[in-house]
Amino acid sequence: MILDFVRDLGAWAWWVGGALLLAIEIVAPGNIFVWFGIAAIVTGAVALVADVSWQAQLILFAVLSLILVVAGRRWFARAGTSEEPLLNERATRLVGQDYVLGEPIVGGTGRVRIGDSMWRLTGPDLPSGTKVRIVGHDGAVLQAAKAEG
């Protein structure tokens, strides 16, 4: 019954299969079914314009699938690198920056306002109004030193 349906569709069966594979990619994303779907649609296009045996169509689909999966994986692995590698590492982005203490550092700990946030910091005892440079961090606690100049 299903084989009769596929035979009746002819080359359009590849298009239907490709559309189903693309729909599976939407439901179960993973960047794998899309390449098989594209390979099926291309195979269907070739089968529509050229009289190709089903064996050749199957080989074409397998080769296209392999090429597209490998090329797609390489493309997206390269495209996945961010232009801002420290985007989600706020404390690391602050290292090397200078700020003015709004509150003094007493007993080796204090707080500094950076933007709209208050950050805890450690460093030498310094009065408020002193310019400090962030030299490192331990988790979300910044490490500060007195800034030159």
Q: Describe it for me?
A:
The chain has helices at 2-9, 12-27, 33-49, 54-79, 90-94, and strands at 98-100, 109-114, 117-122, 131-138, 141-146. With 149 residues, the chain is an alpha+beta fold. The protein folds into two domains: 2-79, no CATH class; 90-146, Nucleic acid-binding proteins (OB fold (Dihydrolipoamide Acetyltransferase, E2P), Beta Barrel). Strands 1-4-5-3-2 form a five-stranded mixed sheet. The model has no long low-confidence stretch (mean pLDDT 86).
Features:
149 residues, alpha+beta, OB fold (Dihydrolipoamide Acetyltransferase, E2P), 2 domains, 5-stranded mixed beta sheet, 5 strands, rod-shaped
Mean pLDDT: 86
The CA-CA distance between the termini, in Å, is 84 Å
The major β-sheet equals: 5 strands, mixed
Strand content: 15-25%
Number of β-strand runs:
5
Write the layout of secondary structure elements.
Blueprint (H helix, E strand, L loop, with lengths): L1 H8 L2 H16 L5 H17 L4 H26 L10 H5 L3 E3 L8 E6 L2 E6 L8 E8 L2 E6 L3
Parallel strand pairs: 3-5
Antiparallel strand pairs: 1-4, 2-3, 4-5
Structure in a nutshell:
The chain is of the alpha+beta class and 149 residues long. The protein has 5 helices and 5 strands.
